[in-house]
Amino acid sequence: MSIKLVNIVKKFKNPDNPTEEVVAVKNVNLEVEEGEMVTFLGPSGCGKTTTLRIISGFEQPTSGEVWIDNKNVGNLPPNKRDTSMVFQNYALFPHLSVFRNVSFALELKGMDQNTIKEKVYSILELVGLSQFVNRRPDQLSGGQQQRVALARAIINEPKVLLFDEPLSNLDAKLREQMRGEIRRIQKTLNITSIYVTHDQIEAMSLSDRIMVMNKGEVMQIGTPLEIYTKPQNRFVADFIGRVNFIEGIVEDITHLYIRVNYNGVVKDIPSFSGDFAQGEKVVTVVRPESIKLSAKEEKIPFLHGKITNMVYLGATLEYEIDTPIGNILAIVSNPLEKGMFKIGEEVGIDFPEKTAHIIP
Amino acid sequence: MKKYLRKSKEEIKLILGDPLLFIGILLIMASLILFILYPLFKVFLVSISRNGGYSLSAYKEAMKNWYFRKAFENSMLMATLTSILGVIVGYIFAFTITRTDIPLKKFFNIIAIIPIISPPFIGALAILMLFGNNGLITSSLLHINNFPIYGLRGLLFAQVITFFPVAYIMLKGVIESINPTLEDAALDLGAKRFQVFRRVTFPLTIPGIASAILILFVETLADFGNPLILAGSRFPILSVQAYLQITGMYDLKGGATLAMILLVPSISIFLLQKYWVSKKQYITITGKPTTSVIKLVSPPIKWILFSICLFFSGLIILLYVTILWGAFAKTWGVDNTFTLDHFRYIFEVGFKAVTDTLIIAGTSTPISGILGMIIAFLVVRKRFPGRGFMEFTSMLSFGVPGTVIGIGYILAFNSYPFYLTGTLLILLLNFIYRYIPVGIQSGVAILRQIDPSIEEAAIDLGADSQTTFRKVTLPLIVPAFFSGLVYSFVRAMTAISAAIFLVSAGWNLMTVQIMSQVEAGRLGAAAAFSVVLVLLILLAIFIIRTFLNKKYGKLGGQVLKF
To answer: Which residues of A touch B457 (CB under 8 A)?
Structure first.
């Protein structure tokens, strides 16, 4: 086990009202395997950065334990923990060259100059910065600064690499490129990593597993596939991707499916989890790309609705549809092939049972 | 309370993990208490002690004495008038230089800064030479004998000239920080130029004006050199009376009482400024810097403002030319023929004061600067119980009149275990602790600009507290350190109010020498001393600036705004 968090709690004093306490992190438990990349995902203020800073040692948890490499590191200051952080604003030393920034940790260890040189050059090679050795941080672009920060963090061969929203200051294109590069380097070196972000696409594309947080609490931990297709609650379903919530009442439960009655129309939704009872009100999570639209007269649909708005995005076409159970969002890919509807047109709405998921 | 205790406990636990830091904090706390608070406490103690017990009788006596009452009233009156007039002149300079396109801006800027890098009583000396009994203007030009320059008029003139530059620098910063697009927006919405000033620009500077008035009030109240020369016996001033009570009447208790009476309003106003008014500043610069064409004043107004600046600049030049001329004149006002006698006198008789001053200022400023940086670092970056106390105490020196501190030092350090009277050490300690706020201020300002994550990165990579400070923080704050150093060096070179109590036959200062020359009526020698003093300061600034330019390129040059 590379990282283990046990019942981590962090309380802060409310700066506006010192007698009041704010719970930033509530009972977080997590185990991270060696070489795994786990993302902490959540809106700002959800406690993800605080949890990261507790792992690095910059914050002391109010209670709970942090284990790194099977050692309880609760009493170790940040400089004695075998973790390296890539900071949101890179935190490069502005008075030192790229080389001296990267060699900083090695110099502290008192390594001899030749070894340092060799290591720095090979790391700079890895991040593709060999030609910028002697530049100062302010002579580099944002993406290059990011690479220096990464090189500086990994040269020490830390047990754990921590990323604090490292790509949030870059533009969209560069962000995508750096995302791939971070993942490549992390896999090459097989370093256990924690990655904090509020960007769901970043989380989906980078992680082995995602820990979704909200208001200090863990909402779900799972692989990107699990998080997207089997969200455990409304928050996760809503925060990752776009979603339709359709309410219904449980009519029957078998070991293969749950039969839900949606205002007269019945569907058997495959379900392997959850304790639902007959007669219980449940919410069905249907992703907009799973919604099937048909011309009104084709067949008896699940629902009828009227298109109120449409947005053409090139690769996809989004429809907003007004139905008796509220607004439904549908996303159609390759719209040229499937044909387009017009605003005001009546359509039939349906979804395949296997793409749906039931939450309380 | 419980929570506070728990928090302190956590903080203590954290510090104990870093013993060097812990010991450092303890030592600094102890030294601040000993060299800043203890002398003040001692002044208080002496003022209330009576026959082994305690009583407030000294205060009652002081209140009954009409002369002391008059001194209090005069001091408050001077502080009020000087702060208002000084801020008006300072505002005109600041506004004209930042918001109009007049010529000679650079020249006005330099002229307005000269009084700051000169001894604070040079204005009084020059005014005495121009308007006094043998004054160039009154006696030689207008043939008026015994022109009453002593008293309110002369003193007010000298103090406004001395202190308006302080207001100028503060307000220049305030006006510069007002985003000109706000004025553009007001014009765009149909406001006339004067309406823009009255409804946008001026209201935004009001907190700055309030701050400047309070700071000038404190500085004028503490001013010692100008009133010593120009107040005269019929217009007593509190700081001078406290000094005369001790050095003239050997009445320590009376002096201490007057010092306390002076301390209370100074500290109150200082705290009001620091903890309330200074927090009310507006921040209007956001996002990208904007350039805007200056168009806030009409041409006639512009030239009126220009004339006012020209007038005051002319006055300042007149004062300095007078000093320079006086330094080379045989007997000022009587026989103005050229001579080098005064300089010969300085290099033969008074040279020890020159070397003493350089030794004292040159030793105390770097120590004070380093201590200030360390305190700034601790206060901004570390969490420990008593952090607020450390910041408060170390900034206190700014609000305490030098006279009070001087009296405090002779009371606190003239007996076992701190017998320091007459030594070099007492002067050094006084200067070090008196000018740490300069270092702290520039240190705090620069540290707030350095993202804490840069230091965290170093710690994260395995550096401990000291290594992080040495290898990362220190190199980043060095330019600010030197800039603070120049300023505290200037203040140390020109200090008089506290130092005048602490000099001895063994260690003397040029400023004190100038004062005694004035008292003895040797205005020429006083002027010559002043010229040498100002030249030494300019030389020091030039050396540090060249060094910084060489070492840090443009960065170093920018840091030194003088």
So the answer is: 85, 87, 91-93, 152
Task: Give me the CATH number covering residue A286.
Answer: 2.40.50.140
CATH of domain B17-48+340-562: 1.10.3720.10
Interior angle at CA B354, CA B512 and CA B161, nearest 5: 50
Give the pLDDT score at B294. 62
Residue B323 has pLDDT above 90, yes or no: yes
Q: How confident is the prediction for chain B on average, in pLDDT?
A: 86
Q: Which of A188, A214, A237 is the last residue of a domain?
A: A237
Same domain assignment for residues A212 and A270: no
The closest alpha carbon to B489, from B535, B525, B438, B451, belongs to B438
Nearest CB neighbour to A95, from listed B460, B462, B475: B475
* Interface residue A249 vs chain B (CB under 8 A): no
Residue A306 in 3-state DSSP? Answer: strand
Of B226, B313, B317, B324, give the one whose Cα is nearest residue B532: B324
Beta-carbon count within 10 A of A148 CB: 25
Three-state SS for B104-131 is CHHHHHHHHHHHHHCCCCHHHHHHHHHH
Decide: A210 and A193 in contact? Cβ < 8 Å: no
Based on the fold, state whether residues A209 and A92 are members of the same structural domain. yes
Tokens 């082995």 -> residue: A208
Residue B288 has pLDDT above 50, yes or no: no
DSSP designation for A134? T
The reply to whether A29 and A125 lie within a common domain is yes
Structural domain tally of chain A?
A: 2
Percentage of chain B exceeding pLDDT 90? 43
Pairing of strands A346-350, A357-359: unpaired
Last residue within a domain, chosen from A200, A221, A237: A237
Q: Measured between CA atoms, how close is A91 to chain B, in angstroms?
A: 4
- Cβ separation of B454 and A83 shorter than 8 Å? no
Q: How far is CA A114 from the centre of its chain?
A: 41
**Which spans in B234-292 are helix H?**
238-247, 252-275
Q: Is the pLDDT of residue B81 over 90?
A: yes
Q: Do B457 and A85 touch (CB under 8 A)?
A: yes
| B461 to A94: CB separation less than 8 angstroms, yes or no | no
Across the interface, whether the CB atoms of A87 and B475 are under 8 A apart is answered: no
Q: A12: which chain B residues are within 8 Å (Cβ-Cβ)?
A: none
- Taking the domains of chain B in order of start, what are their residue ranges? 17-48+340-562, 65-238+281-338
Query: Distance (Å, rounded) from C-alpha A171 to C-alpha B505?
Result: 70
Same domain, A136 and A197: yes
Could you say which of A91, A105, A108 has the minimum Cβ distance to residue B454? A91
Residues A95 and A32 in one domain: yes
Shared-domain flag, residues A21 and A145: yes
Interface size, chain A vs chain B, as Cβ–Cβ contacts under 8 Å: 67
Are B460 and A94 a contacting pair at CB < 8 A? Answer: no
C-alpha distance from residue B34 to each of A58, B164, B257, B367, B438 (Å): 35, 34, 21, 17, 19
Name which CATH class applies to B65-238+281-338: mainly alpha
Which range of residues forms the domain containing residue A25? Answer: 3-237
What is the ipTM for the molecules in this complex? 0.76
